[in-house]
Amino acid sequence: MINITYDLPPKEKTAVALGYFDGLHRGHMGVIGAAQAQREFKLCIFTFNCDTTLPKFSSPEDIISFEDKCARFEKIGVEYIFAPDFAEVCNFTDEEFVRDILVRKLNAGFACCGRNFRFGLGGHGTPERLCELGRKYGILVEIVEDVCLDGELISSTEIRDLIRRGSIEQANRLLGYELSFCLPVVHGNEIARTMDYPTINQIIPHTNVIPRLGAYVSSAEVDGRVFRAITNIGVRPTVTDSGETVMETHILGYNGDLYGKRVTVSLKKFLRPEKRFKDLSGLKAQIAEDIAKVSE
Length: 296
Fold this sequence. Notes:
Layout: E1 14-18, H1 26-36, E2 42-46, H2 66-75, E3 80-82, H3 86-89, H4 94-103, E4 108-114, H5 127-137, E5 140-144, E6 148-149, E7 152-153, H6 156-165, H7 168-175, E8 180-184, H8 191-194, E9 200-202, E10 214-222, E11 225-234, E12 246-251, E13 262-273, H9 280-295
Parallel strand pairs: 1-2, 1-4, 2-3, 4-5
Antiparallel strand pairs: 6-7, 8-13, 9-12, 10-11, 10-13, 11-12
Helix pairs in contact: 4-5, 6-7
């Protein structure tokens, strides 16, 4: 079981991967892999669980939620996570960060980061400074080179832009997995049910980057089973004027009650932008057309 909160440092030495890891994309996995390769140490992550926003963002723009991030950490064998709010550590000097967090809190024997990692007050701590402080405090430090795919640098900024544009297949390629949302199912207006296409409704957190509004080929995982699905992300202009962005998913071949349960929906391919129809019959015809494409 992954240990996210603890009062005492681990008894065993840890290998700490440092970073915000806001998408856990292929580049982030390169950093984590460097720590994972230190077999004599327990794998540990230093990241953030931000109620406040990191300085480089004007507003929260997580690619995946902190909960989804932790679930992925657990799958790859992470044993410890230290995830303070940024406000709790932003006034540490670079040396205080190494001494008080890496040494005293995390019992680090190894630490690694990417070329762009910054730490300490004002972000003045560089990877080279981390190496210098590592030598002082007995921590082996590795600076992990950037990861490229087909000559293209993998970055969270680029992935966010692809998600906003609806280029979900390319975003998934850079992520190394399908963009997914594991969210509780909430009650909606149940209009889709009257058209013979029942959907589950989920609300994407405001801290996440919102994909381009429209219909997607998707999949839904329910009780360990994966179903083909069609997902619409939008404000539902044909049936409501609330302005609230909702993710609605019709799960092919499933008819159970999922209210209150957490369901993982993964986006595979953008089909079309969201649009307003004259009436529900037009909407029903479009849904049927979308489902036919999923079934191909």
